[in-house]
Write a structure and sequence with these properties.
The structure is a homodimer of 196-residue chains. Helix content of chain A is 37%, strand content 12%. Chain A has eight helices and six strands. In chain A, strands 1, 2, 3, 4 and 5 form a five-stranded antiparallel β-sheet that branches. In chain A, α2 runs antiparallel to α6. The interface between A and B is large, with 80 and 80 residues. β1 of chain A pairs parallel with β6 of chain B, so a sheet runs across the interface.
């Protein structure tokens, strides 16, 4: 699909049909995700694909799916054919920037002005969300509130941060997020020229 | 351009020709950036476009461009026709999640499991980097080490975090990042099924 169309069509979807998702589409989507940039080419991102119903139910509980359903949304996490859990590992960046080509002259690690491990996983998430549209699928996003319980459920190492849950499937009619009533910020407010 | 081609062609470029960049291309790229997702549709992202040479020189200094040049790279920040500085505002998220439709039942703000303000600006950065390719341009990325000096230079409010500098232009032959020698992590290592 044309890039501009992919960007324009992308939106958060919170209901999926029971139609199965082609595993090869998920593979292609994750190939896109692996092509995201990362500071020092650290590539500190991992992705967990979940399709087993018991796991999806448990993950949905950790994302408080019930509170969505109480507000009229579909059970879009437990009911999605596929979940992808994007993860990022801050320590991978520290290990990378302690290597000889990255340390400062005195041998110390740089001071990190911003946590690039969270920005880089954001890049990977964006590639997943766009790739989903390119595959004719739809995706949502849910935050998991208790990361330790999610780690335990999916056997995620302690140093790894699962940053949320991306439910993926063929779209079904859904209730739109009330947040959209806020409207999109105007270009003139968002873009600044030659200074803020 | 086809989405898959855009993703495949994207890479960090560290040299640009003197050929000017169409301002309308930058506008389209920033329209893509504004379409990124954000928690609670907070849209806590702003973008500063810089084309004035004096500002570009000062920004290049804050990004330690000299140390790149000493290692054989082109002056890819001061020499780029356009710089975009993506910014994110954590406080915008706190303000959003203190609104009536987002507070918890006891009126308190949620505990943030991950800093979505950095993930969301990562999404916007990814859209910029892809949009650049779609426009037939190229982009790099540089971290600014002293955020307070960058704030002062560009009149950025104290609560706003400029997360880096994206130089944009028509590509010129460049020295590749030595980090690429690390190679891309294998799909089997990065993707986990039904658990880590």
């Amino acid at each position: 699909m044309d890039f501009a169309d992919v960007v324009a069509k992308r939106r958060m979807v919170r209901n999926f049909s029971e139609r199965p998702v082609d595993p090869e589409a998920i593979e292609r989507i994750l190939d896109y995700a692996r092509r995201g940039p990362s500071a020092g080419f650290t590539q500190g991102q991992d992705f967990i694909v979940v399709t087993q119903q018991e796991l999806k139910d448990a993950i949905a509980e950790l994302c408080h799916e019930k509170s969505y359903v109480e507000r009229g949304f579909a059970p879009f996490i437990s009911g999605a054919p596929v979940l992808i859990i994007p993860c990022t590992t801050e320590n991978a960046y520290h290990r990378r920037y302690q290597q000889s080509d990255k340390v400062r002259e005195d041998g110390s690690e740089i001071d990190w002005p911003v946590p690039f491990w969270f920005m880089d996983v954001g890049c990977a998430v964006m590639l997943i969300l766009l790739g989903v549209v390119d595959e004719g699928l739809a995706a949502g996003y849910a935050g998991a509130m208790d990361l330790d319980m999610l780690r335990e459920l999916l056997n995620i190492p302690a140093e790894v941060t699962p940053v949320g849950v991306i439910p993926i499937g063929h779209p079904a009619p859904d209730k739109r997020s009330p947040s959209l009533k806020r409207g999109r910020r105007d270009e003139k407010e968002v873009v600044h020229h030659e200074g803020w």
